[in-house]
Structures are given as structure tokens and as C-alpha cells.
Predict the structure.
Amino acid sequence: MEWMLEHSYLMLLLAGAFGFLMAWGVGANDVANAMGTSVGAKALTVKQAVIIAIIFEFAGAYLAGGEVTATIRKGIIDADAFSHAPQYLVYGMMSALLAAGIWLMVASWFGWPVSTTHSIVGAIVGFAAVGLGMDAVHWGKVGSIVASWVTSPLLAGIISFALIRSVQRLVLNHDDPFERAKKVVPYYMFLVGFMISMVTMVKGLKHVGLDLSPFHSVLWALLGGAIVMTIGTVILRRIKPDPEADKNFRFSSVERVFAVLMIFTACAMAFAHGSNDVANAIGPLAAINSVLASGGEIGAEAAMPSWILLVGAMGIVFGLAIFGARVMATVGKKITELTPSRGFAAELGAATTVVLASSTGLPISTTHTLVGAVLGVGMARGIGSLNLRVISTIFTSWVVTLPAGALLSILFFYFFKGLFGA
Amino acid sequence: MSFGSSIAGLFGRSPIKPLQQHYDTVHDCARTLADFFAAVTANDWDKARAARKRIAELENQADELKKQFRLSLPKSLFLPMPRTDLLELISVQDKVANKAKDISGLMLGRQMTIPPVLADVMQAYVQGAIDTSAQAQKAINELDELIETGFSGREIRMIEDLIEELDRLERANDDQQITIRATLFKLETELSPVDVIFLYKIIEWVGDLADRAQKVGGRLQMLVAR
């Protein structure tokens, strides 16, 4: 304990490195999956997708990521169980970061579709339950998190289904779908802007120092939606029909309108992902920092220093730049069947679900939510073919990832305990 | 290393494009019958042989595409239409090409000549069958629009209109067949009996080709129907 406090800078440096590794994994794997749909629909180039991801991931983490960070930091485990030995919390969170980071790399190497969220939750539950005893885990909270892993893809699927149905009814089933698209698409843009500003108003501005009443929040969100809608309408004005392409496929011009919309939903997706998944890397880091900064006190409300968010953001940016761009290109090539009119429905359905989960503090898997959203579009008979085997691989990845993350984290926990002293 | 496999792995290859490509090949095959008949009518057997070779090649290609299509349609795929309907449709499509190959094969093998009196009507008759196939192709080409709109009522009506036109073309082809048979009946005594028998056979087969093209439309209609 004394040793740990004396060397708190060293410990922070080490924890920062593990957090960076975890964020790197999130950037290389998760973000690329989330943004790959936009690349696949040819709404964005890989370069543009990376730039959007960097900006909106950061914005999402900063403005709407607080609740999930709090859950990861202190919601899953019972802080009281650590009050007699706060150093265990530090060792445990370090182990969880390292375990989840390594597990992500191993899984990615073999191409298993694992979720960063599942890895970190499994790892935290693992070290707490085994290192300190079953009482150290808030099992009720863990139960609701696990339940949200089932409900989030379902909800995303339902929203996407409704969105694609509305596109079919409002745009595609009309005499002049191109003109209809130009009229209807701005309203979808409004929806995107409204949703993001609403979450920002409700969740984000409190810690910036602005506390708005719900009524004012709605007003500002409406304004946000209107601004996005205006920008979108201006861009849409430049989209002209292409009769040559329409000869081959009658909806080619319509899809060009939806491609513009997909730029906005891609931003929403990155924002949603940032609000939920960045916490996987910075939540444990925040927990470690609060113990070390308060000199061994548990549960002290230490404000999260900005360097922690920066470590998370930098990790994601590096992960994106080194591997993520390549992954996006691969994912994009494989999903050319997803035209912008379906891609936007899938992205908006997933983004809305993820942002909702973030505001209630539930860490969910963005990738699995997106899979649910795509299946929702498929249910509306909108996609040529979907490979249902993915559902069973996802299920397997749950069954494997939770124990794997837990086991690795337990190993590291005892290793750190032996190394730094009880 | 295969990062991001879950989203990418979710998407199978759409069966629509391969299905359309298959019929494009089938129709190319059927269309070459026009060249073949022109060569036969002109008694240019070198040209007829070349056309027949092209027909056989295209038929082989269509067979290959059909095989690939079946192999790439595992049961684990989630499709917007029943898998069995798609498999049936491609079999029906393939039969159009088979007929074109049969017709050209028999005519080349027997070095059949077409009586000059029949030449014009015969050419129109073959063209009628090819037009029927072209109409089937048009209907098949609507399939991607059908998926795009999620089987919207408007798109279904559009396909139904195309199929109705297809039925009309096939009926017209039937009428042509009746006329051409009547003409041949009057000529029977002037021709060798064996030649006449085979001419009837060819006339029947050309009608079959149009009939099979119509069946493609029928299958498509079942696939579109809710």
C-alpha cells in the first residue's frame, strides 16, 4: 500500500499504458466495424471515415460518455469491498485493462467477432469475484448489463426496421422517387441532429458547467436538428439525377441522395460509439486515478482529469490509423450489398440504441447492436442475403469472451499482487 | 489477420446479380438463334456452324453459372425470398438455353434447309420466340429494384405488367406457330417426308423456347407474390 502510493506516478504510467493498449484495440477493431458500413455503402472514403471517427468519437466520449465511464469505474464492483485494501482496486483495474486488451488482440488475430465491452466487463467481474469474493460484485448491475446485450440488438433491429419501412413507403414506392428523396431525406437529417444534440444537452453539458432544464434542452435540441437539416438541404441541392446510371438500376440517383444522409449518420454512429465504448478504456483508468490521487481513499469523488480522456482518444486515433483504416477498407469491400438507403437505416437504428444505452450508463456492444440493426433491415426484405451464421458466432463469442476476460484478469491480478505487494 | 469480421461476415453475396447474369447469358444464347437461322436460310453452313458453336458455348456458360449459383446458396443464408423459389427459377431459366442448343444441334446435324416459301415466316417466328425471351430478361432485370423497394406494391405491379406482356408475346408466338404449320401442311407433298417430320419438330421446339421463356415469367410471378 505505502509502496504503491510512493510510486503512484509509476503506477499511473503503467495503468495509462494499459489503457492506451485497450483504446488502441477499440480503435482498430470496434470503430472500424462501426464505420465500415459507411465505407461499404460508398458514402465515405476510408480517409473521410477516419477523420469523422476521430472528431465524433472524441465528442461522444466527452459529451455523452460520462455515465458509462461511471458504470465501468464503480458500478460493476462494490467499492466498499475495497475500502480496507484500496491497492487491490488498482491492481484489479490494471489487470482488467491488460486482460481485455490482450484478449482483444488474440481474438482479432484469429478473426473472432468479440466485443470490447464484453471483454472489459468480464475482466472486471473476474478479478473482483475471485480476488475479493463474490460480494465484491454488484450482481444486480451485472445482470442488467448482460440483459442489455440481448435487448440492444433487438431494439436497434426494431428501429432500423421502422426506418427502412418508412423509406420504402415515403420514397421508393412513388412515381418520382428522386424528388421524394430530396424532400424526405432532410427530415431524417433533422432526426440525426435532434438525437445527438438532445443527448449532448441532457448528458454532456452538465460537466461543462451548463445545466439546462428539460424544456430548454428540447428547445436547443430542436435547434440542433434544424441546423443539421439546413446544412443537409444545402448539400442536397447539389445532387443531380444521373439518367445514365438509372438505366441500369432505377434507384441509382435516389441512392445518391441517401449517400449524403449517410455522412450524417456516420457522424452519429461515431458519436454513439464514442459515448459508449471509449469508457471501456478510460473507465478503469479513472478508477485507478481516483484511488491514487486521493491517497488511497476509495469512493472519493475525484473529478476525471482530462489527461485520461486524452489517453483514450489518442489510443483510438492510433488504433484507427495503424489498423482501423485497413479494416474499414476490408469491411467496406465485403458489404457492397448495403446501399446508402439501407445503410443509413442500420446506422441510425444502431446509433440511437447505443446513445440511449449510454445515457442510462449501460455498456453495450456497438458491433452487436449494428448487427441487430442490419438484421432489422433484412427483415424488411431489403438486403439480398444475410449470413445468419454470424448470430451463432456472436453467441459463441459471449460464451467465450466473458470467461476468457475473467480468467486472464484473475491471472494478472495475482501477478500484480505478488509483484507490488499486498 | 481479419479484424472486423462480424459485420463483414454478416453479408452474404446477393443471389440477385448472379441470377440476372445467368439469364443474360441464356438470352444471349437464345438470341444467337437468329444468326443461326439466317445462315441456314442462306445455306451458308460455315456460318451456321459458327453460330451453333457460339450457342453451345453460351449454353455451357449458363450451365456453369447455374452450378455456381446453386453452390453459393447455402441454407444458412437469410434471403428476402424463399431459397427454393430461387433455385427453381434458375432451373427454369436454364431450360431456355437448352432448347436453343437442341434446335441448332438438330438442324446442323441434319443440314436442314428451310423451304424458301417458309423462310420469311420462319424468321419472324424465331424472332418472336427471341422477343419472348427478351421480355423475360426484362422482367428478371427488375429483381434488384424489387429488393430495393422491399417488395413494394408499385414494383410488384410493374413486374406483373412485364409478365403480362410476356404472356401476350408467347400467345402471339403460338399464333405464328399455327400459321406456319398450316403453310407447311400445304407444302408437305412437295417435300421429303423425313424432312417434313423434322421441320415440324423444329417448329415445335421454337415454340417450346418461347414457352419456356414464359415459364420464367411464371416462376418469377410466384416469387413476387406474397
Summary: Chain B touches chain A at residues 1-17, 76-81, 144-145, 147-155 (CB under 8 Å). The helical segments of chain B are 5-10, 16-41, 45-71, 83-109, 116-140, 143-148, 153-187, 193-224. Chain B is about 80% helix and 0% strand. Chain B has one domain: 14-224.
